Amino acid sequence: MEIDDLVAPLVSFRRDLHANPELAYQEHRTANKVAEALRELGLEVHTGIGGTGVVASLKVGDSDRSIGLRADMDALPIQEETGLPYASCTPGVFHGCGHDGHVAMLLGAARYLARSRRFDGTAHFIFQPAEEGEAGARAMVEDGLFERFPCDRVYAFHNWPDLPAGTVSTRPGPIMAAADKFEILVEGGGAHAAMPHKTPDAILAASDLVTQLNSLVSRRIPPMSTAVLSITQIEGGSSHNVLPAAVRVVGTVRTFDTAVQDKIEASLRQVADGVALASGTRVTVNYQRYYPATINSAEAAEEALAAAAGFARAELAPQPAFTSEDFGFMLQACEGAYIWLGQGRGGDEVPLHHPRYDFNDEVLSTGIRLHVSLVERHLSA
């Protein structure tokens, strides 16, 4: 059996998932279809891991070596605008990040390896829920993923529209940023807009806060370090002639180094305290570190590029991305690497998380080959 022979049925499988997307921890139909397909291969299948996660294991030979391959299953809360014949049947839910393609590629690799069996050891196929901001990787790890399914190394990859199809790229060290989010509540007292002297002005204080926060990275973080702080929401007020009692300021911080992450959080809290003191408002900060940085081991990144070199354009990524990925939780628990799989078609590419995005089915075979090559290389007989 050739890998290319698997593609046509996997395209149908992928498009069925696309038409029936499910949000984080609600991937029941997806998980059931995946588990059913894996059982048909004669694999040992475990469900309900970390919520709706599925893990299947394939052992060949006598070696105690092992490898994990992960694909994410969840969709996004976005209204699809592709107009495709297999567009989402669920209003407001959409596979706008290509996880339907990730599932199809890993399933294709399981099918191929179950038949070829050209390795010595155990391959674990990990289908993860809730990557999109809900930390499904952490849920699986906390549910005993690597205790129940020990892995020498674990790998995952994501389709990458900015890279041409047929390209595989990764790097040692940081590849995706840590993601923090903050919500700051600025409380005055509220008053008539014609009598501002009667209340601390929450809008003015929030404006000062936003200005200071936007200079925090440039003035508090060393130029050699890398970080992004963005304000994404400001909410307050309901009338032209009323000073609101409260204003909410929301944003995100992206970093690669925990020391920089610590410095930004501490500085943000200092700025908030200073604004409160200067304005007479009450300022409350809720700061949450929800995804760690995704840090590849040098050896695993090197192995991934070597595994791809025989069939793809294998490139060392020159720099990490400031987007985040909860695969970082798995890499905190097990050595491994995160990989970008090019899917660009050579024109104006629709980015991830866009209402008109669709996974490029032409790279299914490349993704399957990458999974298979990683297994056969790491578990060489």
UniProtKB/TrEMBL annotation:
UniProt domain Peptidase M20 dimerisation: residue ranges: 182-273
Keyword line: Hydrolase
InterPro entries, sorted: Amidohydrolase (IPR017439), Bact_exopeptidase_dim_dom (IPR036264), Peptidase_M20 (IPR002933), Peptidase_M20_dimer (IPR011650)
Keyword Hydrolase carried by entry: yes
Protein name: M20 aminoacylase family protein
